[in-house]
Write the structure tokens for this entry.
Amino acid sequence: MANWPCRRRRRVGLCVSVLGVVLQISGTRSAPIAWSKQGAFEACLEASLEKWLQAQAALVVNEDPAAGRLDDAVVATWTVDILSLCRLQAGTGSPDSESRFTGHMVRWRHHIFDAASMVKKQGAAD
């Protein structure tokens, strides 16, 4: 990571471009969750997860110290909060979908690493 362009102030423009890729590229999607049914609740969970992953990947790519402050407790709190929010937005939840989502979030480090790797590859290709 020592040679990553964001470490050099004169290449700030490149970092902004990479951040734009993080926020727009669909290739940063995490591994899909195998829902038993797809409804408003599951769509909310997926959309929230993608936004969160993009934000976390941006921190990693830009070597932001905030990325290092993420831990299991913070992710568990975020997961519980998103489950509650999506239950409210969808009007209902599903115990099976909640279980699948929390099981997916157990591998949060892997998902963030994959998203950050995709962004770095896109940045290197540009």
Remarks:
- The helical segments are 12-24, 40-61, 72-90, 95-105, 108-125.
